[in-house]
Input
Amino acid sequence: GNSVTQMEGPVTLSEEAFLTINCTYTATGYPSLFWYVQYPGEGLQLLLKATKADDKGSNKGFEATYRKETTSFHLEKGSVQVSDSAVYFCALSGQGAQKLVFGQGTRLTINP
Amino acid sequence: NAGVTQTPKFRVLKTGQSMTLLCAQDMNHEYMYWYRQDPGMGLRLIHYSVGEGTTAKGEVPDGYNVSRLKKQNFLLGLESAAPSQTSVYFCASSFLRTSGSRMETQYFGPGTRLLVL
Output
């Protein structure tokens, strides 16, 4: 079945550092890929998405590129801020499906 | 426009008690979902609904029941709560996928924290 594997956390960085959170997936066909963010005490919000190979999703300075050859969708940001502290979830939706499969989440803490 | 709301925010139950979690959305979405979130396991789908009067099982449906009597509401019931059901429960909703388009964005509620003693 479909599955998502995320980089183990927690991740702690200093402000303005470069961020990478790894995400790889297993799926048949051509899934859609997502990154969701969960700020403390809140529900999940869509951060970015990509629906086909080589697509790049971007939002709020975060980027992720759909790499079919490596089955990856790594999240990157060039310069993180304290306000980026949150839990980040990678997810996929199988081709033709309307259901999400989530990774285990990566807790990110940014220190000033 | 409140989006997705969940009631209650927090609840403590004793083993064997029952309760119902309410999810409401005001975006006229066709799809609604119930997830549970446990440490180190991400979110797992419990049940979902593709429209009023319909429900379907997700990844971890055992011990839960759902109903979708009105389009805007999706209820999650625990008939006999167990400590293994201690979790944070999230509801989400999305539009119906139109022909040729991909998965629509899911919008999440703020969550219900449930503790079963």
